């Protein structure tokens, strides 16, 4: 069943990335000879609301299990992003020690620790037990549950939140009606909800198809989301366009009737930009697969040419987006022998589908590959700075999206 917001069937399929295993289902060595489950990876767009989504082939409860491998704190740029946000929002909303902040999908405490240091009461809600445990070690009270209307009702009996934060979680929610209803229930009378998520406009404009994976049920534009919030008596009063994840939106949302909030020009400006691009036209979606195929062909041609000329290419960053890219392109160990990652939770494991081993950074210095393919291209600056030493032997970086680029 498609986990849609609108009741009209979603009739238009506009991107088929074929079958793929869940992008964060890394394998241990003993699992390599066992059967691996692949699920369809197709995007659909509603002809009525222009909401974009995947079918829920793999349940959220199965994806976000106890052995979840993504820990936010292993990205220095993401930590900086979180710290900068907290400094700004505390000042903007005049948050104090009498305020209450809730983060949904709080992961390992990468963000809430900044509120803890300011002695602002906060609560994390995180369904993955291992990342929640890491947050608890930082002194962050964390509830290990999925967020929705039922949990919001329980929490609201104690205290409502002056700020609710959801960074890169909204797209992971199968039932957005239940989720948004929970947000409204938990929000204090004059409170603000901040939701941050990759922007569909950037995905389509820049060919960022690798951000499509089974954890992401939804791919949002402001155009498609405004009716969702209106249906729950909420309104978007401000929008920030961010550079994170290749281009994201941060929405500022409040209760209808909250006269302390006024709708700012950023809302209309973002809508105008989306409409100008054509996110309200089916023809725009039908053209997108051509761009995706071109990216695939460029990458394969480059890797095959390197193989022919005895040039070595290693990947960097065992990110979910990298797994989508490699599996859609059919890249295996023969073309990309290793992928390097900084997280000890991934090193020693193997990428789903491609079965490429994940190794430590020391392998780069030991083997001196000719090229490093940066899979989390949104962290290009961070990674190229970190690995700048490859230039000492003539190594170069490859950026695959929006088009294959060699960075010297």
TrEMBL record:
GO terms for molecular function: methyltransferase activity. The keyword Methyltransferase applies. SUPFAM superfamilies: S-adenosyl-L-methionine-dependent methyltransferases (SSF53335). Residues 244-402 form the C-methyltransferase domain. Residues 3-64 form the Methyltransferase putative zinc binding domain. Pfam families: Methyltransf_13, Methyltransf_14, Methyltransf_23. Keywords: Methyltransferase, Transferase. The keyword Methyltransferase applies. This is Methyltransferase family protein. It comes from Marinoscillum furvescens DSM 4134.
